Amino acid sequence: MPVLSEAASTPGTPTPDTSAVVDLGPASALSCRECGERFPLAPAFACTSCFGPLEAAYDLPLGDPEGLRRRIEAGPASIWRYAPLLPVPADVADKPNLAPGWTQLVKADRLAAELGVTGGLYVKDDSGNPTHSFKDRVVANAVEAARAFGFTTLSCSSTGNLAGAVGAAAARAGLRSCVFIPHDLEQGKVVMAAVYGGDVVGIEGTYDDVNRFCSELIGDPAGEGWGFVNVNLRPYYAEGSKTLAYEICEQLGWRLPDQLVVPIASGSQLTKIDKGLRELIATGLVEEKPYKIFGAQAAGCSPVSQAFKAGHEVVRPVRPDTIAKSLAIGNPADGPYVLDIARRTGGAVEDVSDPEIVDAIKLLARTEGIFAETAGGVTVGVTRKLIEAGALDPSLTTVVLNTGDGLKTLDAVAPTTGPTAIIRPNLDSFREAGLAS
Ligand SMILES: *Cc1c(COP(=O)(O)O)cnc(C)c1O
Ligand SMILES: [Zn+2]
């Protein structure tokens, strides 16, 4: 749960950043998810009345769905086509930013055949983003909030992908960056975080320790003027995940899918995908019909899945131990909301073991030519498990998210993947290897 801290410019505190001067497009206020109280737009993340998380509230463009749809379709091939539904200024596409999104929705017929899905199976492949994970979507939104509130340093606590996304986005926007990661992350993610020239700090501890440290830093003069994309800018950052919902529906021909399988780290992405789908219905961009959202975790870090199966409404923190490091958050802030959404929509939350994750990465690569990071192995593995258990209906249109690139988690598959043969450069040697046609 985000903790309120003094320097986070809590709502009600007079700051130079009042909503009167902050232009974040259709976002008009922050509202508390728990008690509904409203606050002016500010770098704040917890309600002063009840400590509930704050989220962006909008004046949504209602009443002219045809006009809105035309405007979106005429927009750029990035998340900025949805600027009328995001907390960003109208001219966002003209500013220096990574313009993420509009990634491929792959019709995965060969994977569908293997899994027995007959109703249409799609993979939303977010490895195609500028830093090769879905995190570019959320960071791009946080950067606009950082600019609006006058922050000059961009920061975050990260399980890996976020650090790279922040480093790159800060470089493009001309901001300083200083990011915090667990010291034992995959090399690909550490190098990716550092290559953009910002500061990278490895912390001896788990992601949850890193996150706690960042909350302390926000309350200290050492962190003054810093925008932590997933802490004091969280309400704006989180909205970026809605674009996954928008894109999936637009790419399906402005239609809701029947089922989605979404990975869970903090649970923010899943929660905002649901919010995005509901906004599409509210604005009339899609026709209302039931949809089910399924959450996916690694067994080695499955606090939400365990709570779902036990019928609990709260999530008991765990200590992560899994190869799916990008999802290794033991104390997921949005866990209770994920439970609500899975139950309300008729979905479920399931988890798969590390060997099942590796198998699923290879299955997706072999059938669709998509090399997913471990988080993609988690969603594909969970999809397979849910179908086998009869929890996911194979006769319905299903979208599975791949949120990151396999090149960042080579260690997961390297021990069991390599050359078929090593031969001398002659035909005899080739024939001996048994590979001739
Ligand atoms: C961060 C991340 C997620 C989801 O994170 P949430 O905290 O649940 O929003 C999913 N996949 C990858 C690869 C990530 O890096
Ligand atoms: Zn509240």
From TrEMBL:
InterPro entries assigned: Ser/Thr_Dehydratase (IPR050147), Thr_synthase-like (IPR004450), TrpB-like_PALP (IPR001926), TrpB-like_PALP_sf (IPR036052)
Pfam family, one: PALP
Keyword Lyase assigned: yes
GO MF terms, alphabetically ordered: L-serine ammonia-lyase activity; threonine deaminase activity; threonine synthase activity
Enzyme class: lyase
E.C. code: 4.2.3.1
Residues of the Tryptophan synthase beta chain-like PALP domain: 99-404
UniProt KW keywords: Lyase, Pyridoxal phosphate
Residue numbers bearing the N6-(pyridoxal phosphate)lysine modification: K135
Ranges of compositional bias, category Polar residues: 7-18
Keyword Lyase: yes
Annotated GO biological process: isoleucine biosynthetic process; L-serine catabolic process; L-threonine catabolic process; threonine biosynthetic process
Cofactor section: pyridoxal 5'-phosphate
Region (Disordered): 1-21
Family: Belongs to the threonine synthase family.
NCBIfam families per the UniProt record, alphabetical: thrC
Protein name, entry field: Threonine synthase
Taxonomic source organism: Streptomyces radicis
